[in-house]
Structures
1.
Amino acid sequence: MRREVILASRRVYEEELRKSLRAICIPPDDGSPIDPARLDDTIAFMALSVGGISLAGAVDDPVFCEQILTVCRQAVERMATPDNESRTNAEVPDHARN
């Protein structure tokens, strides 16, 4: 029973995560497929954001907490600059190709 609950929770979590990633990748009124390179960039953005918040919240030292958040914020800003174009399909890892 416990395993079934864990698996069901994972399925729901994944479904909601995919919705969030799609919302970041594509405007709501656009039903086009997600570009695999853009999806990879969005996953990296989300992981950096969520991971940074998790790490910052897990440390006791407020200075270190702020350092973690600052470094993550700067990394996200670098990722979001127009100069940082998404990779071409030739550069997309195999797991992202369909």
Note: The mean pLDDT is 83.
2.
Amino acid sequence: MRALVTGASGFLGQVIAKKLLPRGDEVHSIARSQYPMFEAMGVTMLKGDIGDLDTVIRSMEGCDIVFHVASKAGGWGSYHEYHHCNVYWVTKTSCAPASN
């Protein structure tokens, strides 16, 4: 199975990736920065931002499943910032056309 795990650098995303890889699943993730630790584990890191819908759609190509566990967390930032990442992104990608 080919899986996209958003937020793989976070606590929950790491756990998901670590559970999928030993099963032989192909794991991909989107990140704005380099994460050599994940590449060493076998995760294919795609450079990009989950706030960019085109990047997200491209990263979903060929995936059988998406684990969206990335979010804006913490107690700082505007309502708009939280809403865009935690609500808007989910709505837009859920309605994106399947490429498989």
Note: The CA atoms of residues 62 and 100 lie 5 Å apart.
3.
Amino acid sequence: MDLDSIDNLLSKRMNKLGLNNEFQAAYVLSQANALADGRFEAVRFLHGNLTLSCPSSIAAQEIKFIEKDLINKINEKIKPQQIKRISYRIKS
């Protein structure tokens, strides 16, 4: 059995169980967190919107400056490109 068929079987099974969106969201979050370097934590991905939790408003503003680059870097890793925008939460 080749990898293509394993990928197809896994995808079909996840769709049948209704887990495909959850799996994709978890994968997007893991890839975003791999690029975080402690600056943020990716906490939610839904309908193309990635939500980041930042330790302060200053940290959120710093990430906002590199937002397009960050979106491109994550999208390169998770093909097909899924992230359209980023929203921010400030940890309290």
Note: The mean pLDDT is 88.
